[in-house]
Amino acid sequence: MTRPDAPPRVVVRRGSGLRSYERALARAGFTPVAGADEAGRGACAGPLVVAAVVLPEGGRGEVPGLADSKLLTAAARERVYDEVVDRALAWTAVVVPTEEVDRLGLHVANIEGMRRALARLAVPPAYVLTDGFPVRGLAVPGLAVWKGDRVAACVAAASVVAKVTRDRIMLDLHERYPEYAFDAHKGYVTPLHRARLVAHGACPEHRRCFVTVRRVENGSRDVVITHDGVVTEDTEEVPA
């Protein structure tokens, strides 16, 4: 039985376009809609960045080239970023520093970052779409959408803002810590990053909640470097 105060049921058909969630919610009386997404969840170094975006209705909300940030080249992301911040009714990016990620844990830090980003929007949303993870206790209804950055325009816009913001931070960190090649891998676990981490140890920007970093700090021999600097361990690294 449906509660009398329950929001109207919203139906979104597959393949109906990147703006289909926003259009369906608008038909049900929910405008504006905010999207939230993060960048850097899987990195073992650098901050977590969470962005929230409210796009306008109509043609101005049709951002040229908009897609999931992971599907765009770096140059394309920069172009789309400029379009998003120019067109958005409101947008914000929250940087969760490394030490806070370690203190709270990755998932809690991610959800807390989404709360902060959504709370700082200059235009309060009537509905919130998040990528993958639900955010409880918001003042408005929301929905966690699987692969939301590929099916909802506002979430895709947030993914681009988060990714570009974080990449710029990692380029700045490369200037401070050039020995880790943050400009190449942006803090993610790659053979190059593992090799540099073993060679130089962890810096303050490395996340101690990650197995990769803890192994190096504990002097583990599980990570092996060959004569050409290639890491030979095949274990996939995941957050602890």
Textual characterization of the structure:
- This protein is α/β, with parallel strands linked by helices.
- It has a domain at 20-173: Nucleotidyltransferase, domain 5, CATH 3.30.420.10.
- The chain is built from 9 helices and 5 strands, in the order αββαβααββααααα.
- A 5-stranded mixed sheet has the order 3-2-1-4-5.
- It starts with 19 loop residues before the first helix and ends in a 23-residue tail after the last helix.
- Residues 1-7 and 223-240 have low confidence and may be disordered.
Structural descriptors:
single chain, 240 residues, alpha/beta, Nucleotidyltransferase, domain 5, five-stranded mixed β-sheet, 9 helices, disordered C terminus
Reported for the largest beta sheet, the result is: 5 strands, mixed
List the strand order in the largest sheet: 3-2-1-4-5
Cα-to-Cα separation, first versus last residue: 42 Å
The parts where pLDDT drops under 50 for at least 5 residues are 1-7, 223-240
Order of helices and strands: HEEHEHHEEHHHHH
* CATH architectural label of one domain: 2-Layer Sandwich
Overall pLDDT score:
87
- Beta percentage is 5-15%
Name the CATH homologous superfamily of one domain. Ribonuclease H-like superfamily/Ribonuclease H
| Count of individual beta strands | 5
Going by helix content, strand content and strand pairing, the class is: alpha/beta
Shape verdict: elongated
What's the CATH first level of one domain? Alpha Beta
